[in-house]
Amino acid sequence: SMEIEESSGNVYTILSNRESYQEHLLYVHFMKNPKGFQLLLKGGYRPFTGLGKNEDGILQPISISFQMNMRGLGYHEGI
User: Fold this and answer.
1) Residue 46's closest CA among 8, 79, 1, 19?
2) What is the Rg, in whole angstroms, of the alpha carbon atoms belonging to the chain?
3) What pLDDT, on the 0 to 100 scale, is given for residue 55?
4) Rounded to the nearest 10 degrees, what angle do helices 25-32 and 34-42 cross at?
């Protein structure tokens, strides 16, 4: 099992084998950005549940893409 401690002292336990939760996208993302995870917990987030009042929101982080050239945001070739 994996334990994630909330700042108020509550501990959330995820019952799973080690390999499966370590490969879970949320676990990987939270371990790369623990401050963001702490902010979510402070706001009432319960790990591995959906976002929002009814916990039915997104389950995975929003993916971003990087633009490596030196053009500005929204630039389109030929405009």
Assistant:
1) 8
2) 17
3) 84
4) 110
Residue type, 72: G
pLDDT tens-digit readout, 18-64: 555 556 666 676 777 778 778 877 888 777 788 888 888 887 767 77
Nearest CA-CA partner of 1 in 48, 56, 65:
48
Q: Where do we find the tokens 């996208």? A: 25
CA triple 28-33-35, angle to 5 deg = 140
In percent, the amount of the chain with pLDDT more than 70 equals: 44
Residue pair 4/14 in contact by the 8 Å Cβ criterion = yes
Domain boundaries, the chain: 1-60
d(CA 38, CA 42): 6
